[in-house]
Amino acid sequence: MSRGSRVLTVMYVAVALWLAFCTVRTWGAVPAWTTLAMAAASLAPVLGVVRETVIADERRAVAVLREREGRRAAWRDAAAAAVARAEVEAACCERWWTSCATEHDPKCAHRTSWGTTA
Q1: Which ranges of the chain would DSSP assign to H, the alpha helix?
Q2: DSSP one-letter string for 25-38
Q3: What is the per-residue pLDDT across 64-82, written as a single tens digit (0 to 9) for each?
Q4: Does a structural domain hold residue 89?
Q5: Does 94 reside within a domain?
Q6: Residue 100 falls inside a structural domain
Q7: Is 118 part of a structural domain of the chain?
Q8: Cα dist from 25 to 30, 31, 46, 49, 56, whole Å
Q9: Total domain count for the chain?
Q10: How wide is the angle at C-alpha 105 spanned by C-alphas 75 and 111, nearest 5°?
C-alpha cells in the first residue's frame, strides 16, 4: 500500500469512528431517522478502506504481471537473436552462390574444401 493510501485509510477510519461516536451520542436525543442516517454515513468510510485495499492488491498484481512479461520479453529477445544469427550464417552460403564462388566465409560449416570430391 502506498503512503497516500495509508493516509487515506487512516482518515477514513478516523471519520468512521467519529461518525459512530456521534451516532451513539445522539441516540434517543434526536429523531430516529437522523440517527439512522448518521449510522449509514459512518459505514461509507469503511467502503473507502475496502476500496484502498482492493486498489493496493491490484497494483501488486500488475507489478507481478509486468515482471513476468519482462522475463518473457527477454526470452523472446534471445529467441529473435538466435533466429537472426541463423539467418546471417545462412547468408554466407547465399553470398557464395551469388558471387560465383569467389566470396565465402572461412568459418562456414557448409564450406567444402577444394581437394575433396563427392
Answers
A1: 3-26, 32-98
A2: HHTTTS-HHHHHHH
A3: 888 888 777 777 777 788 8
A4: no
A5: no
A6: no
A7: no
A8: 10, 13, 20, 24, 35
A9: 1
A10: 100
